[in-house]
């Protein structure tokens, strides 16, 4: 049987949003005034799900798919530049830093509007996003962006295959696996099963310093700060109480009755 030829009629211009978040290995601390989580003096890194997105885009090029350009974009304070350099060290060709104050982070809808404007300006036809950011766990931006652009979407991707302008995405769902097909342009949100992100080696980090990083503002994309959500209070979860021991099943049932769960 002859192998099926891969159609390569359309070049891929890929946009990958990346977010600077508190490192996954750090235990967050609530501020003393309970207004949010303490970020000063805390180690930050790229959102793990965004690492998957950069890795998948880089692998597409390594598979000899017609990748024209991989563009990383991040909205946040000056330190986001480090996150973008990591993205370029992992395979992005250039990056865009949208300056946003650290104490005024964008909400998911505002991020989606920003990405819509950037996607149109950069003329991209494929957007990889992490399915969620580990700081707020909103998990909304990809879906909102698809609605704003009117593009098809596949969320929580575990496998991505491109054949010409047709994209096949496999995703895990409750009780099985679901396979979706759509045509470019398209939005894909990534999940942990998709790949194993590469390590940004020192030589690649040095090379990334020579890659272009554009400085932008919200106004450059026709946007202004707009806040619809207000954080009332942030609290630590209650301390977990220790368990107890019972002698036998009858004792366990009696304990359950005592607690009112039976």
Automatic annotation (TrEMBL):
Its cofactor is AMP; FAD. The electron transfer flavoprotein serves as a specific electron acceptor for several dehydrogenases, including five acyl-CoA dehydrogenases, glutaryl-CoA and sarcosine dehydrogenase. It transfers the electrons to the main mitochondrial respiratory chain via ETF-ubiquinone oxidoreductase (ETF dehydrogenase). The keyword Transport applies. One of its GO terms (cellular component) is mitochondrial matrix. GO terms for biological process: amino acid catabolic process; fatty acid beta-oxidation using acyl-CoA dehydrogenase. Signal peptide: none annotated. Belongs to the ETF beta-subunit/FixA family. GO terms for molecular function: electron transfer activity. Keywords: Electron transport, Mitochondrion, Transport. InterPro entries: ET-Flavoprotein_bsu_CS, ETF_a/b_N, ETF_b, ETF_beta_N, Rossmann-like_a/b/a_fold. PROSITE patterns: ETF_BETA. This is Probable electron transfer flavoprotein subunit beta. It comes from Lithohypha guttulata. Residues 34-225 form the Electron transfer flavoprotein alpha/beta-subunit N-terminal domain. It comes from the Eukaryota.
